Structure formats: structure tokens, C-alpha cells
TrEMBL record:
Coiled-coil ranges (or none): none
Domain of life: Bacteria
UniProt protein name: Arabinose transporter permease
Residues annotated as transmembrane: 20-46, 52-73, 85-106, 118-136, 143-167, 173-193, 217-240, 252-272, 279-299, 305-325, 346-366, 372-392
A Pfam short name: MFS_1
Protein species of origin: Lysobacter daejeonensis GH1-9
Swiss-Prot/TrEMBL keywords: Cell membrane, Membrane, Transmembrane, Transmembrane helix
Any GO molecular function: transmembrane transporter activity
Localization per record: Cell membrane
GO annotations of cellular component type: plasma membrane
Domain Major facilitator superfamily (MFS) profile: 19-396
Membrane topology: Multi-pass membrane protein
InterPro entries associated with the record: MFS, MFS_dom, MFS_Efflux_Transporters, MFS_trans_sf
Main location: membrane
């Protein structure tokens, strides 16, 4: 499938191509396996006889695998047609989850989690390129947001369902179920995603890597890291924020997180549609909104009703930035290296997650404390917004005028 090929969508880009649904199913499976371990930590720790802290490292190991694996696996599959690469990635994903389900000990489970994570960043990176090639030019951001809907639905439904399944049938049953999703996603991608026109065969890896040296691509990646560092500085510690500051019981946290999930889905789709109309204003506006929401949360979390409202707004504002950030990097990498740049941006999201979680922990343990996490996160997101504004200024700055000296 070539970006310039006719879109399967109806005139005007109104109909959603079936291939986009296939990508969404894959995104749902990957999103579920990334976060479902959060609801299985106690069962895993008890069964494998490790501490809760050690079980928690299964989350960190996965994130590190995404960050390192996204660019490396994208480079390794650089000469494969995109459809073939996506199918291969879903096979890796499925095998990784099967290995998790069968893991006899903690070390094997960690290795299986890392193996599974290798498919994550590359799938979303290449999938975003494929998604934009399936639709009309004025619907590229919407296509990205539709694919990422699988990730948001996984957070809203897949993770709680996986946790419930693990509670009643054991944690291994959850990974068996996710492996089944992987088989289904592999089949629908192989069936519905159209074949490439051989456009990837002529792109050498050195040409793809060169794109990463473009200043605008680097600025886009930096904006993604800082924007999402702000999100996860708060979201990582949302449970203690809601219980210790807002006054909710621990049992109330899960329903409140459903509000966050609904906000994610709404923000993701709205951000995609707005970015199709005007990319840069949407990117700037969504990051500014995210910074405002984070800043106001400093005060809102002290009131229970406001805390629920702003938890939903955080989900909406956070995911309204996803499609604009991804499309911005894709546009700046246009011509060659879209796959690698797109995968690097997925890695940048995960790096932001890790930095945000670390920063929030520092603020809690060594800084002003839990109540200061939201405004600290807002400052970080403002730094991401500043990078976008600098990037736009560099893009529109006129070339220096040459002085013309007229001879008498």
C-alpha cells in the first residue's frame, strides 16, 4: 500500500476502511497486554514467589523493551512490505503472550514480557504510516486516532476484563486470552490490510536513519517526550492522589478510572478530527489545554466532585495530543524514513511515561510532596509546548535577506 494510492474510503473520506479496524484490533491486544499486568501483580508475585516490587518491574521491563525495541525492530524490518511487517509483529506479540502464560518462573516471565514489548512500538509506528495511507489526505490524523482507539478501549475495557479473568481463573488465563486476541488480529490484518506496492524495498536503512537528523523531527520527538512526561507524572500516582488528597476510598478508584478511560476515547477521536482540519493549531491547543488541566488539578483534586471531573478531562486532554504529535513527526519525516521516525515517536511516548513516573516519585519523596505533582507535571508539559512553538517558528521564519549593493 502506497500513501499515494487511492483510498478505500468513500469520496470525501467518510467511510472507514475495514483495514483500519484490523489495525485497531491489533492495537487493542497490544494495549491490553501492556497494562493488564497492573491488575495482576499480587497474583503473579504470590505464584512466582517474588515481592510486589519485583513484580512491578515487569511493567518497567515492558516499557524499556518498547523504547529500545521500537527503532531496532523497525530498522530490522525495513525492507519488508509494511503488511508483511505488521503480520510478523503480531506473530511475535502472540508468541510472547503464549510464553508469558507458560512461564515457569519470574525470569522467564520477564524475558517473555520484553519479547512481547518489542512488537509494541514498531506495530504502532508502522501501523500509523499504514493508517494514513488508507484514507484521503484530509483524514490522516483521524486515521491515526481510530487506530489508537484500540489502545484507549484496552485501557477502558481490556485491562479491567483481564484483571477480572486473572482474579477468577489465575493470571495465566489472562495471557492465554490476550494470545487469542493476537491470533485474531494476525488473521484480520493478513486478510484486510491491502498489499504494498513495493514502496519499502527501495529505502535503505541509512536513508531512514538520516531522517532522524532533521531538526524538525527531533523537535517533534522532544515535544512528545515532555508532553507525555507531564501526563504520566500524574497518572502513575492517581491512586494516592484520589485517596490521600481527594478523600476517596480505594474501592472508588476503579470507577473513577473508567471516567479517565471515557475521556481518553473522546479526546483521541476529537483530537484526530481537529488535526485533520488544522494540524498545528490543534497540536498547540491540545498541549496548552493539557497543561491547563494539569495545573488546575492542583486545586481540583481537593474537592471530590472536581477531582472526578478533572480526571476525565485529563484523559481527554492527554489523548487529544496523540494524533497531532504522531502526524507532526510523520509530516516532518516525509519522503523517506516515515516508518523509523513514527516508531521513534512511539518510543518517545514510552520514554515520557518513564520520565514522568520518575519525576512524580521524586516530587513525592524529595520535593514538595504529593499535592505538588499536578503543577510540576503542568510545567513539564509547558516545556513540550514551548518546543512545538519553537519548531513552528523555525519552520515559518523567512530566509535572511541578502543586501544588494547597487553600483553607481
Amino acid at each position: 500500500m502506497h500513501p499515494s494510492s487511492p483510498s478505500p474510503a468513500a469520496p470525501g473520506g467518510a467511510r472507514i476502511p475495514p483495514a483500519l479496524y484490523a489495525l485497531t484490533i491489533g492495537a487493542f491486544g497490544i494495549g491490553t497486554t501492556e497494562f493488564v499486568i497492573m491488575g495482576l501483580l499480587m497474583q503473579v508475585a504470590a505464584d512466582l514467589k517474588v515481592t510486589i516490587a519485583a513484580a512491578g518491574l515487569l511493567i518497567s521491563g515492558y516499557a524499556l523493551g518498547v523504547f529500545v525495541g521500537a527503532p531496532l525492530l523497525t530498522a530490522a524490518t525495513g525492507k519488508l512490505p509494511r503488511k508483511a511487517a505488521l503480520v510478523a509483529l503480531m506473530v511475535i506479540f502472540t508468541l510472547g503472550n503464549l510464553a508469558c502464560a507458560l512461564a515457569p518462573n519470574y525470569e522467564v516471565l520477564m524475558a517473555a514480557r520484553v519479547l512481547t514489548s518489542l512488537a509494541h512500538g514498531t506495530f504502532f509506528g508502522i501501523g500509523a504510516v499504514v493508517a494514513t495511507g488508507l484514507v484521503a489526505p484530509d483524514r490522516k490524523a483521524s486515521a491515526i486516532s481510530i487506530m489508537f482507539t484500540g489502545l484507549t478501549v484496552a485501557t477502558l475495557l481490556g485491562v479491567p476484563a483481564g484483571a477480572w479473568l486473572g482474579l477468577h481463573l489465575g493470571w495465566r488465563a489472562t495471557f492465554w486470552a490476550v494470545a487469542v486476541i493476537g491470533v485474531i488480529a494476525t488473521a484480520v490484518i493478513a486478510t484486510l490490510v491491502p498489499k504494498d506496492h513495493g514502496d519499502r524495498q527501495g529505502i535503505a536503512i541509512r536513508e531512514e536513519v538520516k531522517v532522524l537528523g532533521r531538526p524538525q523531527v527531533l523537535l517533534g520527538l522532544a515535544a512528545t517526550v515532555l508532553g507525555y512526561a507531564g501526563v504520566f507524572a500524574v497518572f502513575t500516582y492517581i491512586q494516592p492522589i484520589l485517596t490521600e488528597i481527594s478523600g476517596f476510598s480505594e474501592s472508588a478508584v476503579s470507577p473513577i478510572l473508567l471516567v479517565f478511560g471515557v475521556g481518553m476515547i473522546a479526546g483521541n477521536l476529537i483530537g484526530g478530527r481537529l488535526a485533520d482540519r488544522r494540524l498545528l493549531p490543534t497540536l498547540i491547543g491540545s498541549l496548552a489545554l493539557l497543561a491547563v488541566v494539569l495545573g488546575v488539578m492542583t486545586f481540583a483534586v481537593r474537592d471530590p466532585i472536581a477531582a472526578v471531573v478533572f480526571t476525565g478531562l485529563l484523559g481527554a486532554a492527554a489523548f487529544a495530543t496523540v494524533a497531532p504529535l504522531q502526524l507532526r513527526v510523520l509530516q516532518q519525516a516525509q519522503g523517506a524514513g516515515e516508518n523509523l521516525a513514527s516508531s521513534f515517536n512511539i518510543a518517545a511516548f514510552n520514554l515520557g511515561n518513564a520520565i514522568g513516573a520518575w519525576l512524580g516519585g521524586v516530587v513525592i519523596a524529595r520535593g514538595p510532596g504529593l499535592g505538588a505533582v499536578p503543577w510540576t507535571a503542568a510545567v513539564v508539559t509547558l516545556a513540550g509546548l514551548a518546543i512545538v512553538l519553537w519548531s513552528v517558528r523555525r519552520e515559518v521564519r523567512p530566509a535572511p535577506r541578502l543586501a544588494i549593493v547597487a553600483a553607481d
